Amino acid sequence: MHEVQEDTFFILNGVLTAQIGDEIIELREGDFATAPPGVPHTFTNANRNEIARVVNVMTPGIGFDHYITGAMSGAAPAEMERLGKEYGVTLVGPSLAEKLDLQ
Predict the structure, then answer these.
(1) In CATH, what number does 6-99 get?
(2) Of 18, 27, 55, 89, which shows the fewest CB atoms inside 10 Å?
(3) d(Cα 4, Cα 72) in Å, to the nearest integer?
(4) DSSP 8-class letter at 50
């Protein structure tokens, strides 16, 4: 969940399963969805046999790349918590993949 960013997904191809608030939706080529600030959201590629290509737009995005860099680098949980506080991200769970039993 983002305190200030609006998180928008535009699907180039494939299928992205997203949860925005309590609603779970399948987004296909040409679809887009937006999670406003303060609304919990997550996404997953439920079809592990097909690549989903997605454009993800964070508005405002200033500095958010530092949070993503930390997440992608496998930062320790304490570091992710620090980055979350710094960049206004609150992790709520479980992940959508866990909810859909894709693990």
Answers:
(1) 2.60.120
(2) 55
(3) 21
(4) S
- Helices of type H across 42-103: 64-72, 77-87, 96-99
pTM of the model: 0.82
Collect all residues with Cβ–Cβ distance below 8 Å to 36 and sequence separation of at least 6: 6
In single-letter form, the type of residue at position 48 comes to R
Q: Rounded CA gap, 65 and 63, in Å?
A: 5
In the chain, the amino acid numbered 68 is I
Place of tokens 């930390």: 70
Summarised one tens digit per residue, pLDDT across range 55-78 is: 999 999 887 888 888 888 888 888
d(CA 67, CA 89): 9
How do strand 53-59 and strand 6-13 relate by DSSP bridges? antiparallel
Helix boundaries (H) for the chain? 64-72, 77-87, 96-99
